[in-house]
Amino acid sequence: MKLSRPVSWFLLAFGVWSWFIWITFVKNLCKDGSGLAFDDAGAPTAYFWVHLLLAVTSFLLGTAIGVIGLRGVRALRRGPANGTPDATAPATPSSPSSSSSSSSAS
User: Residue 66: is its pLDDT beyond 70?
Assistant: First the structure.
């Protein structure tokens, strides 16, 4: 499947945004002083673990989406893949079959 240029860049931007947002979120979660993330003894609460799991999952999904976008951008810069016809290229005639060339050899 070939991604268009805007879609590839959107996916890449989404992946970069995910890295920024979720790393910032985890930093803020670890520095939480409101009593939600850590109890009075300093132990993590259920709130901390649920939100850490949410952040890690979102970070991994954002990374996967960003990698798809990066591969799409790189494929567009490289041009059409070897062996796959480009839709804008003119069609080339097929080569003659090998059986006709081998029978004429004497």
Answer: yes
Q: Which pTM does this prediction carry?
A: 0.66
d(CA 8, CA 65): 10
What would the two tokens of residue 99 be?
A: 């059986």
Q: Do the beta carbons of residue 67 and residue 15 sit within 8 Å?
A: yes
Residue 7's nearest CA partner among 79, 69, 62, 64 is 69
Rounded to an integer, what distance in angstroms lies between the CA atom of residue 52 and that of residue 23? Answer: 10
Please give the share of the chain, as a percent, with pLDDT higher than 90: 58
Q: 73 Cβ partners below 8 Å, 6+ apart?
A: 5, 8, 9, 12
